[in-house]
Design brief:
The protein is an all-beta fold. Helix content is about 0%, strand content about 55%.
Length: about 120
């Protein structure tokens, strides 16, 4: 059974920081791409950051220089460090995992709310 359990969301003032965590189970974490997406009210879900199994990372232009994605393969956990938060970062943040090769899977976490007040 696959589980992606997010934590770390909350309410923060503009300019503040939060760290999101996503603990995964039931997948082969070391070969999986791990990503963070977000969805604001009335908007489509969008990619925030992704960490590939090979150690590469990619970020949405809107968060470059402020957010950092990193993973701990020993703990099967991916993190999203969010600094210099802005009100426009307010959204539900979702963890996603995608398999590779013959392990073809695509799973989502339940989401965690991040609210940035001005």
């Amino acid at each position: 059974q696959v589980q992606l359990v997010e934590s770390g969301g909350g309410l923060v003032q503009a300019g503040g920081s939060l760290r999101l965590s996503c603990a995964a189970s039931g997948i082969i974490f070391s070969i999986s791409a791990m990503g963070w997406y977000r969805q604001a009210p009335g908007k489509q879900r969008e990619l925030v950051a992704v960490s590939t199994s090979g150690g590469n990372t990619n970020y949405a232009d809107s968060v470059k220089g402020r957010f950092t994605i990193f993973r701990d393969n020993a703990k099967n956990t991916v993190y999203l460090q969010m600094n210099s938060l802005k009100p426009e970062d307010t959204a539900v943040y979702y963890c996603n995992t995608k398999g590779a090769g013959i392990f073809n899977y695509d799973y989502w976490g339940q989401g965690t709310q991040v609210t940035v007040s001005s």
